[in-house]
Specification:
Blueprint: H1 11-15, E1 23-25, H2 28-37, E2 41-46, H3 51-61, H4 64-73, E3 75-80, H5 85-99, E4 106-110, E5 116-120, H6 125-141, H7 143-158, H8 171-184, H9 201-214, H10 225-239, E6 253-254, E7 262-263, E8 266-267, H11 268-283, H12 292-314, E9 324-325, E10 328-329, E11 332-333, H13 341-348, H14 350-360, H15 384-398, E12 406-407, E13 410-411, H16 412-428, H17 432-449, E14 450-451, E15 454-455, E16 458-460, E17 463-464, H18 471-488, H19 491-507, H20 540-555, H21 558-567, H22 569-577, H23 583-593, E18 598-602, H24 608-620, E19 626-630, E20 652-657, E21 660-661, H25 668-675
Parallel strand pairs: 1-3, 2-3, 18-19
Antiparallel strand pairs: 2-4, 4-5, 6-7, 8-9, 9-12, 10-11, 13-16, 14-15, 16-17, 18-20, 20-21
Pfam family, one: Thioredox_DsbH
InterPro entries: 6-hairpin_glycosidase_sf (IPR008928), 6hp_glycosidase-like_sf (IPR012341), Ssp411 (IPR024705), Ssp411-like_TRX (IPR004879), Thioredoxin-like_sf (IPR036249)
Protein name: Spermatogenesis-associated protein 20-like TRX domain-containing protein
Length: about 675
């Protein structure tokens, strides 16, 4: 019989709807039931694309005997961490505090009031059964100790915390962050640290911005460490197995330091951030010490293929973007993506198969499991046309395989990141269809996720979920809307971003210049999460700082600018000690150092000269530049467009800082000169 998850909107919860475990969704009803039965609560947290979540589900949650133990001894609560990042955050902090590590699936035993007293991650079936019986026995015989343990955890994690106040990072501190990153940089393979190795998308944006700021301060023959780390990492990832050499898009991480074998799940947030990073790097790769034109072409090719993959494989019928593709298909991780020499011969024939094996590093021994290989760009092809023909044939053959499952819920924050990435890429790559896709995703967010300036976190099939938006949702959606205005000229996106950012200031502020990750009227947990570090995606605080800064540059609002500067305080502390966990904040600090600059482009939207000026602005301006667009007649209530007429009736650009603008120009060359 289906359990209580059958009406959930989360695909992850629906994966467990037919388990013999009597799952409850997160909510007060589950804890009230635990109090009624006088038993502990087992909180299991995961997400739909998680490989080890599937393993534990198959081993334990689908097993009748294990489920019977769970049902008799506990009230069992299943949580989608992507739908409830606040629940995940507070229990992950407890798990890391108790065990020294974390991960998913996360397994937490709590009192009937939600206080965690025992935490872990994945447990194999026999070990899990023993654990269930051991915890139940302790609850029966040593309950006082468990209650004390839970109370101590709640007191420790719920205690007020504040970061030392600091001004935003200076140029010297941002330069120091680069030197710190250089000590952790992998000279041989790109990226930072060892295995497992994650795509440092936000660090790439920071390093690109830092390189642009400092390139004019160096002589032509001086090394450019920021750029060398950024381009070295981007090219290594693009040539590795972490990048889908046939279909585009990046996997979650590489299990080895060489980017060869990925953990195969593909996440929207990774690809949206990497789309933006590769677009930004490829738009103007100056001072590279390499073949600049070839480097730019490769970076922009990866950006374009990533965007095309997002539109092909993640786009939902409502115009949004699904959260992820699973790591597994046919019950095995990576089956959809890997190849053997025999499979190449079957599709391509002997000669082209030999060419493909050499080009993509497919060997008889294999680089993955069971003699299979992950495709990577093992050697530069001498024949580009042949490579394209081979890629198309392999991609068509792969389409006949059983594809990975898709988690098709729409997460507001990650769609905001996608909107920003697609809007910028659409202009730089001269792909209007990407801007249209960004617009459709933004309109879904505004029509389904937003009510009276407040956001819900998720939707599915055009139906909003029940979870309140968290700080990253407000900030990332605002960021996407502001970028989309620059691409479309629609003033409504600026106004909607302003609504969201006003909600940030009203409902998320901590009273000390920072922000909580949840709103003041959100569900109260034993700890109100507040994480300033950038990890897999920008922290809510860093994302808020970036969006507030852009909005202030467009509107002239000192209130929003001051909030952005205060929010960057942790970045100053992290710049020297842990810059890998402050990439988005460091990039925002670079934008602050440049003003940030703002460019207003006005002109008939159908005039090709307007498009040329717009693309010039996006290509030549420092990262973090605020871009607005109008027709030169109606400012639409966007302050930076006020009193910005056409010059001699022609499309015109204004380069401004703090609303003080240089002489307007109709020349793309002059616009580029002013921006440099």
């Amino acid at each position: 019989m289906p359990n209580r998850l059958s009406d959930a909107t989360s695909p992850y919860l629906l994966q467990h709807a037919d388990n013999p475990v009597e799952w409850w969704p997160w909510g007060e009803e589950a804890f009230a039931e635990a109090r009624r039965r006088d038993v502990p609560v087992l909180v299991s947290v995961g997400y739909a694309a998680c490989h080890w979540c599937h393993v534990m589900a198959h081993e334990s949650f689908e097993d009748e005997a294990t489920a019977a133990l769970m049902n008799s001894l506990f009230v069992n609560v299943k949580v989608d961490r992507e739908e409830r990042p606040d629940v995940d955050a507070v229990y992950m902090e407890a798990t890391q505090a108790m065990t020294g590590q974390g991960g998913w699936p996360m397994t937490v035993f709590t009192t009937p009031h939600g206080a965690p007293f025992y935490c872990g991650t994945y447990f194999p079936r026999e070990g899990f059964r023993n654990l269930l019986q051991g915890v139940a026995a302790a609850w029966r015989d040593k309950r006082g100790e468990l209650l004390d343990q839970g109370a101590r955890v709640v007191d420790a994690l719920g205690a007020p915390r504040s970061l030392p106040e600091a001004p935003p990072p200076t140029a010297a501190q941002l330069d120091l962050a680069v030197r710190t990153l250089a000590r952790e940089y992998d000279e041989a393979d790109g990226g930072f640290g060892g295995a497992p190795k994650f795509p440092p998308s936000m660090i790439l944006s920071f390093l690109t911005a830092q390189h642009e700021r400092t390139s004019s301060l160096r002589s032509a023959d001086e090394p450019a460490p920021a750029w060398q780390m950024a381009v070295g990492t981007a090219l290594a990832m693009a040539g590795g197995g972490i990048y889908d050499q046939l279909g585009g898009g990046f996997a979650r991480y590489s299990v080895d330091r060489h980017w060869t074998v990925p953990h195969f799940e593909k996440m929207l947030y990774d690809n949206a951030l990497l789309l933006r990073a590769y677009t930004r790097m490829g738009r103007r790769p100056v001072g590279t010490g390499r073949d600049e034109a070839g480097t730019a072409a490769l970076l922009l090719r990866v950006a374009e293929e990533t965007a095309d993959w997002m539109l092909r494989d993640l786009r939902t019928p409502e115009g949004g973007f699904a959260s992820a593709l699973d790591a597994d298909s046919e019950g095995e991780e990576g089956t959809y993506y890997v190849w053997t020499p025999a499979q190449l011969r079957e599709v391509l024939g002997e000669e082209d198969a030999a060419f493909a094996a050499e080009t993509f590093g497919v060997t008889e021994e294999g680089t993955f499991e069971h003699g299979t290989s992950v495709l990577r760009s093992a050697s530069p092809p001498a024949d580009a046309r042949r490579l394209e023909r081979v890629r198309e044939a392999l991609l068509a053959a792969r389409a006949d395989r059983v594809p990975p499952a898709r988690d098709d819920k729409v997460v507001a924050a990650w769609n905001g990141l996608a909107v920003a990435g697609l809007a910028e890429a659409g202009i730089v790559l001269e792909r209007p269809d990407l801007v249209v896709a960004a617009k459709e995703a933004a309109d879904l967010l505004l029509s389904v996720h937003m009510r009276d300036g407040r956001l819900v976190r998720t939707s599915r099939d055009g139906r909003p979920g029940t979870s309140a938006g968290v700080l990253e949702d407000y900030a990332d959606v605002a960021e996407g809307l502001l970028a989309l205005h620059g691409a479309t000229g629609e003033a409504r996106y600026v106004h909607a971003a302003g609504q969201l950012l006003d909600s940030v200031l009203e409902h998320f502020a901590d009273g000390e210049g920072g922000f909580y990750d949840t709103a003041d009227d959100a569900e109260k947990l034993f700890n109100r999460p507040q994480d300033p570090t950038d990890n897999a995606a920008p922290s809510g605080r860093s994302a808020a700082a970036a969006a507030l800064l852009t909005y202030a540059a467009i509107t002239g609002s000192e209130r929003h600018r001051a909030a952005a500067e205060s929010a960057l305080s942790p970045v100053t502390l992290l710049a020297e000690k842990a810059p890998r966990f402050a990439g988005w904040g460091l990039a925002a600090a670079e934008a602050l150092l440049s003003g940030p600059r703002a460019v207003a482009v006005v002109g008939d939207p159908d005039d090709p000269a307007t498009a040329v000026l717009l693309r010039t602005a996006l290509v030549e301006a420092p990262l973090g530049t605020a871009l607005v667009r109008g027709d030169g007649r109606d400012d639409g209530g966007v302050p930076l467009l006020r009193d910005r007429p056409l010059l001699d009736g022609r499309p015109t650009a204004y380069v401004c800082e703090g609303f003080v603008c240089k002489l307007p120009t109709t020349s793309p060359e002059e616009l580029a000169r002013q921006l440099h």
